[in-house]
Amino acid sequence: MRKLINIKSTIPLLTLTIMMVFWLGSCDKMDDNYQQYIENGETLYTPKPIDLIGKTGNQRIQLEWDITSNANTDEWVVTYNDVELTFTNTNTTHKEYIVDNIEEGDYIFTIWGKSNSEGASLKETIIVPVFGETYRQSLNPREISSFYFDGTNAKIIFKNSLALAKSTEVKYFNTSGTEVTTVLEKDEFEIDLLDLDFDKEIQYRTFYLPTAPIEIIDEETSEIILVETSIDEFDSNWEIVPTSPFSAPNLDRSSWVAIEESSIAFDGWNIERMWDNDINSAWHTPWDGTNYPHHFVIDMGEEKILTGFEIARKWDWRVTTKTKFEVSTDNTNWTDLGEFINPNPDSDDPQVFDFTSNPNARYFRVTFLEGNGSEAIIREFYVKGI
Questions:
Q1: Is the dihedral of CA 354, 357, 360, 365 positive or negative?
Q2: What is the DSSP letter of 244?
Q3: Which CATH number is 135-240's, of 3.30.70, 3.40.50, 1.20.1050, 2.60.40?
Q4: How far apart (Å, rounded) are the C-alpha atoms in residues 367 and 378?
Q5: CA nearest 323: which of 352, 359, 303, 283?
Q6: CA distance 359 to 386
Q7: What pLDDT, in 10s, does the model give residues 76-99?
Q8: Among residues 193, 383, 197, which one has the least CA distance to residue 307?
Q9: Model-level pTM greater than 0.85?
Q10: How far is 235 from 226, CA to CA, in rounded Å?
Q11: What CA–CA distances, in Å, run from 359 to 148, 291, 319, 362?
Q12: What's the pLDDT tens digit per position in 93-124?
């Protein structure tokens, strides 16, 4: 029994020995096949550019790429059209190279590394647009929504920026004769011009990036990183800010409180009827012969920039024809914005009146100086501003 066991245990060992003999013989043949490639040692290849991106500019571009090692690269070659450029390799794994003096257009750039001893790397190619004066001349300043001037300071309100707009620059003179430049970022909408000399031009322009950023994923954090693809900004031509009053929307009237009114016919014709959004109700002064003028004072609840007012369509033939408008920030000191004449008392259209200046005010006082008949009847009264 013991011998049988010993004989059986030698069978796997014999088999393994035979297999190793055959395997070693095969390895000798494989070495013969590849010997010619390793006689002079291991071959080191020139690393190729990876993660190649192109950043456009004003008649120039900046190429950026990475490499895994600098050990076997002596110089880099950049070609486009029939132009070939070379520069010496630096001891960094991130490369940047600017190509200057390129006419506007789309270009194909090819990049590869060269080794004096080992030859060239694999090539990488990228298409990059180049911009210049033709592109710049196509740009327009950001659109203006409104301009307001209170006699001392002005405010410009802009519309939404275009996608590639970066910032807007406004240039004006103050009353001391000093030129002032202020900058509005793309996500901002209002800019103040303090102590403005209204008799001199206000100019503005907008800066643009010609291409949008690209998204790159950080391999370590898996976060998306925005990488700018423009190295130059392009400015639009300067334009003059229009300083005539703009038509602003009607202000919200939900917080209005009447703190004074000259007279009322009786309950049901009260002053609040002028802002109840019901065209079929009205404020009505007495019809007992109480004649013009009629007036009221409103607290809007907070300061606003005012640009004008509107009276909804007339009730009947009894129409106000001359109106005085005053404003205040404290209900004590008042500024007279002038007297306004209704140019067409027979019209059913709303009467809209614009101010020549745009003051800040919390309170306003309206005095109806003259009208057809003795009574003032106002369906709805609006104040325009922001």
A1: negative
A2: S
A3: 2.60.40
A4: 12
A5: 352
A6: 11
A7: 999 999 999 999 998 899 999 999
A8: 383
A9: no
A10: 23
A11: 8, 31, 27, 10
A12: 999 999 999 999 999 999 999 998 878 999 99
